[in-house]
Sequence to fold (471 residues):
Amino acid sequence: MTQLIEERYFSSDPGQRQVARSLYEGVKDLPLVCPHGHVDPRLLANENYDWGTPVDLLIIPDHYIFRMLYSQGIELDALGISRKDGGAVEQDHRKIWQTVCDHWYLFRGTPSSVWVRDSLRDIFGIDEKITSENAQSLYDAIDAKLHSSEFQPRELFHRFKIEVLATTDAATDTLEYHQKIRASGWSGRVVPTFRPDAVVNVLMEGYAQNIQRLSEVSGIDVTDYRSYIAALEQRRRFFKEMGATATDHAAPIAYTGQLSEREAESIFQRALKGDASAEDARLFTGHMLIELARMSVDDGLIMQTHIGSYRDHNPFIFERFGRDMGADIPTASEFTHNLKPLLDRFGREKNFTLILFNLDETVYSRELAPLAGHYPALRLGPPWWFYDSLNGMRRYFENVVETAGIYNTAGFNDDTRAYPSIPARHDLWRRACADWLAGLVVHGVVDEDDAHEMAVDMAYRLAKQTYKLEQ
Fold:
């Protein structure tokens, strides 16, 4: 059984399995480069962080877990998820944990089961299956670890061999916790990432208040489009001073298109009054993606776009619990025409890198790989969200690399809020890469020396180079 676990995710073919094992041995202990994710910087801002309970750590923040449970009729209230109206939800975390363990069979074959299983074994030292019967003993074992000194976030950072970790932070964030990390003198490298979605999406609830907050933190009175652009540029400079090397932008579609200043001003003023339409949002977001690309050319920050999610599809969940509560659904995407206005201006800029993430696998081979295989500015992000899985990674390799090669991809990022799962996610990627590369070796596509070098690039160097994290 131990041998099966150690060689998990490798081919059953003995020749390929042997090569995969050798490739994996060469990368499994490399440091972790985490260039995009959602770990809260508060975890690392001081030496004594209170994790709360196992439910606070593993259940309440993880939409992968509670969306599955919700799909089987378990209400979010019963899982302790806070309601927008302050209404009562389950407060007994042992009861919540028991509910989750009673239904853990739902996760068989899913990435969540892999991440939790590997995290429990490798981080908590718990090598047991999750069952109804052992739920409370698991709770006690996890809880004991959470209250031990060796499980403090900074200790885990070094134990995980994290070389650098990027958080994702709103454009209006003061980066208070990043400043505390820096002032503490701690050796861990944690950098922010500039995410302006709340001040770009003109349909965002509280948009006018978000702009007011932008005024406050930038020191620029944002009353019109010009002052809005100036404030964004000021915030980018601040983020860069705090160590940021990248920005991040979400959009439902990849549309880009240039507006005149007068057109942008008109939409901006309607948005401040709460009168913006869906068409205004489409046009303004598409325009701002070009403007933000221009800013990246000027300041050198890497630009990431995450395309193709219908956010908050379930109105009941949105109204009761708020945003990002597991009700986001992938949509079809088109890049070749939608991205052309941006690429016409910046596709060959030497000081510009645009990393594309998407939730429509059908465009991998048809559009994304050919685009990245041509435009010097483009790189492809790894499989994201619904496809951050063993099979998703395999499909990605098969559909992308033949046209774009691995050197037009951005390596791996864990893209997680679940801090203890970071090593498990990187390990899955490294095993998937080793097995896929071993297949190329046994089929005579590359030799084993090249495969070893490619494995290191995919596990470590590509992310570090693409996100300019080498300094």
Observations:
- The chain has a mean pLDDT of 96.
